[in-house]
Amino acid sequence: xxxxxxxxxxxxxxxxxxxxxxxxxxxxxxxxxxxxxxxxxxxxxxxxxxxxxxxxxxxxxxxxxxxxxxxxxxxxxxxxxxxxxxxxxxxxxxxxxxxxxxxxxxxxxxxxxxxxxxxxxxxxxxxxxxxxxxxxxxxxxxxxxxxxxxxxxxxxxxxxxxxxxxxxxxxxxxxxxxxxxxxxxxxxxxxxxxxxxxxxxxxxxxxxxxxxxxxxxxxxxxxxxxxxxxxxxxxxxxxxxxxxxxxxxxxxxxxxxxxxxxxxxxxxxxxxxxxxxxxxxxxxxxxxxxxxxxxxxxxxxxxxxxxxxxxxxxxxxxxxxxxxxxxxxxxxxxxxxxxxxxxxxxxxxxxxxxxxxxxxxxxxxxxxxxxxxxxxxxxxxxxxxxxxxxxxxxxxxxxxxxxxxxxxxxxxxxxxxxxxxxxxxxxxxxxxxxxxxxxxxxxxxxxxxxxxxxxxxxxxxxxxxxxxxxxxxxxxxxxxxxxxxxxxxxxxxxxxxxxxxxxxxxxxxxxxxxxxxxxxxxxxxxxxxxxxxxxxxxxxxxxxxxxxxxxxxxxxxxxxxxxxxxxxxxxxxxxxxxxxxxxxxxxxxxxxxxxxxxxxxxxxxxxxxxxxxxxxxxxxxxxxxxxxxxxxxx
Length: 634
Ligand code: MSP
Description:
Elements (H helix, E strand, L loop, with lengths): L3 E10 L6 H19 L3 E9 L3 H9 L4 H18 L6 E4 L3 H17 L2 E11 L4 E3 L18 E10 L5 H10 L4 E2 L1 H12 L5 E2 L1 E2 L18 E2 L1 H6 L1 H4 L16 E6 L3 H14 L7 E5 L2 E3 L14 H8 L1 H11 L6 E3 L1 H31 L2 E3 L7 H19 L3 H22 L1 H6 L3 H22 L4 H11 L5 H9 L6 E3 L25 H5 L5 H5 L3 E11 L7 E6 L6 E5 L7 H4 L3 E5 L5 E3 L2 E3 L2 E2 L1 E4 L2 E4 L11 E2 L1
Parallel strand pairs: 1-2, 1-11, 2-3, 7-12, 11-12, 13-14
Antiparallel strand pairs: 4-5, 4-6, 6-8, 9-10, 15-16, 17-18, 17-20, 17-26, 18-19, 20-23, 21-22, 24-25
The structure holds 5'-O-[(L-methionyl)-sulphamoyl]adenosine.
5'-O-[(L-methionyl)-sulphamoyl]adenosine binds next to β1, α1, α7 and β11.
């Protein structure tokens, strides 16, 4: 196994501000990079922005800015977001960086010399939004782009072409060389089918706009700029110094590209052909993730349903958000963002299973042992130790296969075992029976499993795991990982430190629906509802025609209220401590008429009577003067 690791995120177009999909790509890379570092690998993590092309030129023009000024601004936003999200990138590359531009020209020159690039006439359709060429058979009805559905433009220009067709066999051979080069496998198979169906040469220059990298001087053809995808893909190489000082090129042979499924073809077909043409080693892995949707729909600015990752992280915490993104959706599949699922994860997995386990350990260790626990060996927990060891050794393969949700699912079993062992062992009874040595043994076992858990969870929740490590007095570093995880060691004694609970439970959504991205700070904190929601409540006036006490209840009265519906409504009301039943007959009350029926003390109730409660007790809310029974309250 290599002692190096290179991970790249896609570089983001600067025509849009960052959203949850971008955050997901980058967070996945960050998790891979942190894990590699913790395993002691020499690691390089690259992210950045993709700044050339017609799409960016048009977006800048629409804002009355130069493309460069516009790119500076949005690229800055991406960089600030990643810094705020504590993303541990080694370089943030911009395709407007001079070393990158030189590298792209160098690649063009090599391919041209080799005969892989030739000049010809291009005639076909182009989608500016996707920066993609399409053949007639691929287009939707009316010539629309098959990816985004937007109209395409007819291009007829002199272009340079890359001999993609010459690479078909070599690409197929590469795919066949290792089934795990492209993940998930279902998508790998799509790529293979696409290449098997034949490859056309690819137009790799444009003459109709200017915002791009010029051809190398040696080509002597100043009106062309290089196609944005050749430019963009090259970032993975130029970032390591391919065109200049090669100090980081040692990482190249250990490359993992993380991308979204929509850009797999560019990476698994074009990029592999370009690299083959340049005689460079091919990546070890291309991992394509799915798309995040909102309530089942694609996110877009026009729909106003874009999720702003900063707002989610501010409201719920960055690390719970990272955990949710990785745990809730299998890598490679699409995921739907919803606050309920996030809250459930926080309350059940984080606060309950993990947070509570640490609290129980610290609470008992403090109460019974002044926070110092010791047990030379753990004879009582043989079975449990074996179970933990088995889980720990099953995790690495899951991580390597990018099964990050399964990794977390299995890891959580460690904490569940911890909680169950405490509950079954009943340490409080053992203490009463003067068996404190057994309790110390239990707590040492729990502290060990938390230490192992923290080492394994650290790439996903680094700060929370630092807190756990502080409480346990262990380090989160490569030597400790080696001893407790790889070598399966167990620690004999701990000197613990009390810390604040790791996670707070969340009782209700913290962001306004449906527009988490646009909710204002004030609205988020209040419980305002819209007029539409209020209009759903049917309020009516009605006279009480019968009233009696509910047997065995001091609080409940059974009322029949005339809401003008022919038959009176039966309503059970909690007003028995304040009203005698007889005094109510013939008086009017206000009723919520469309409440779902409920059973109170076994009696069906078909509505609710409105009342006012303050320090003087409870009074019914009534119309100021008599109204027709069944009149609506607006
Ligand atoms: N600039 C190209 C990538 C060049 S890489 C050499 C590009 N940029 S992008 O900004 O449009 O998209 C960047 C990444 O974000 C892609 O991997 C894409 O799949 C991902 N996502 C964009 N929207 C997404 C979701 N709604 N959900 C998940 N990821 C999505 O493509």
